[in-house]
Design brief:
Blueprint (H helix, E strand, L loop, with lengths): L4 H11 L1 H10 L6 H5 L4 H33 L2 H34 L6 H6 L3 H7 L3 H12 L6 H13 L3 H15 L7 H27 L4 E6 L2 E7 L5 H12 L7 E4 L2 E3 L3 E4 L9 E6 L2 H5 L8 E8 L5 E9 L11 E9 L1 H5 L5 E3 L5 E3 L7 E9 L25 E2 L19
Antiparallel strand pairs: 1-2, 1-12, 2-9, 3-12, 4-5, 5-8, 6-8, 6-13, 7-8, 7-9, 10-11
């Protein structure tokens, strides 16, 4: 159903108020770097040029937005749809340029000795804005630039700490937390979980980086693609560490007749925390077993970082633990879930799609994950083989059977995977000083 013209104008006015206000604000930010800043060097000059270029482009789009908005308000009904589409396209472009200008301003501040107060004011909301858009690296970039020139801004420090931690920048998050502790004597409760795991994760990340560099150099690992309406989420699988598990996942992804991975929901999504899929039913209860979980796998296990892809570990009995098709995508590091997850791959393409999945659960006041009643979960249409070693074919290996056996019966069904514990840091809360 189409909105009436007047109603649509009202809604769009509120939707784009942040853009309009910001555009008006930037017209007041004049850059006279030679006189105001009193510093000139190559990095600063390059940053100033990028900022001026982004700012000019943003101002140009702002002029077009105001023009299109004015035209829409007085247009004939038959022209309204075309002008509405034009206005929406311009505001979308304006949002992109606003972000580019903020990041250019961050570069400028990072390379400044004496900051422009207008730039500091302009960037004030950037760390939280980028955090909420799951752009943790950009949040850190903006936060780092502001923190270079300000003190005692604890909300900014909090936003930057968690964004650094979430984007695998453990050394920087640790540096900021140690500075906070030195100044205040203690950290706020919201950061205790991050602080406790930060040092170990920093060491694990160094090892992970070495492994990834070798894998990139060889460029040999198989990949599967979760095909979605807006693109593909491509997962590279750690075949060197987990050959049987990866073999079975590749077999499942290659099935043309009666495939398992088809039209499935992301049935458990906690924003900034975790996304789960891999069940034939939307309640997450119809999964299948992929492999036995072994002590040897545990020895080779890799830590959970942003972008990790894991399978849910299920304890069937006192003597049998298995891996299921409970596929888990991690937007942030979750070392607290290492016992219930085996990391068997990482996202190499489409992480933005995982970041923006429809939220299905939220954490209540008791720290428990509760479902959102009206949430319609995001879905993938199918999982396909994106890349495999030349000439290699995969056959399903039943849990407990030797590596080179022939394909056995259909994989076993199992109970629903567990969602994991409450998040490490509450994104909804920000501490005061």
């Amino acid at each position: 159903m189409q909105l009436g013209k007047r109603k649509w104008i009202t809604q769009m006015r509120f939707r784009n108020s942040h853009l309009i206000i910001a555009c008006i604000a930037i017209t007041l930010v004049s850059l006279t770097h030679s006189s105001v800043f009193g510093q000139v060097n190559d990095k600063y000059e390059a940053a100033a040029l990028r900022y001026e270029k982004s700012l000019e482009a943003w101002r140009g789009v702002y002029v077009d937005i105001i023009k299109a908005y004015s035209e829409f308000q007085v247009c004939e009904k038959e022209d309204s749809e075309e002008l509405k589409e034009k206005f929406l396209a311009l505001t979308a472009r304006g949002d992109v340029l606003a972000d580019e200008t903020m990041l250019a301003a961050a570069d400028l501040l990072e390379n400044s000795v004496t900051p422009d107060p207008d730039l500091l004011l302009f960037l004030k909301t950037a760390p939280l804005k980028f955090y909420e858009a799951h752009r943790y690296g950009d949040s850190v970039k903006a936060g780092r630039a502001i923190l270079k020139h300000t003190e005692d801004n604890y909300e900014l420090l909090y936003d930057t700490v968690r964004s650094a931690f979430f984007s695998n920048q453990f050394d920087y998050s640790g540096e900021l937390m140690e500075e906070w502790r030195a100044n205040e004597g203690k950290l706020p409760p919201q950061l205790q979980g991050i602080y406790t795991s930060q040092k170990a994760l920093a060491e694990d990340w160094k090892k992970e980086t070495v492994l990834r560099e070798k894998e990139v150099e060889k460029d040999h690992l198989p990949r599967i693609a979760f095909e979605m309406e807006d693109g593909n989420v491509v997962v590279e699988l750690f075949e060197d560490q987990f050959p049987v598990v990866v073999n079975n996942l590749m077999w499942l992804a290659s099935q043309e007749e009666n495939p398992f991975f088809v039209d499935q929901a992301f049935f458990f999504v906690l924003e900034h925390q975790l996304a789960m899929t891999g069940s034939r039913t939307d309640d997450g209860k119809e999964i299948i077993f992929v492999s036995n979980a072994t002590a040897e796998q545990k020895k080779r296990a890799r830590q959970i970082f942003r972008g990790s892809f894991g399978l849910n570990v299920r304890q069937l009995s006192a003597t049998q633990t298995v891996l299921s098709t409970g596929c888990q995508f991690f937007p942030i590091p979750r070392p607290d879930m290492a016992d219930s997850t085996l990391v068997v791959g990482r996202v190499v393409e489409g992480m933005d799609l995982i970041d923006n999945l429809q939220k299905t659960h939220e954490i209540n006041e008791s720290g428990e994950a509760t479902p959102l009643e009206e949430a319609i979960p995001s879905r993938f249409t199918r999982v396909s083989v994106n890349r495999k070693p030349e000439g290699k074919e995969y056959e399903f290996i039943q849990p407990g059977t030797p590596r080179n056996t022939n394909q056995g019966p259909a994989p076993q069904a199992g109970p629903a995977p567990q969602a994991g514990p409450a998040p490490q840091a509450d994104p909804a809360k920000s501490p005061g000083k």
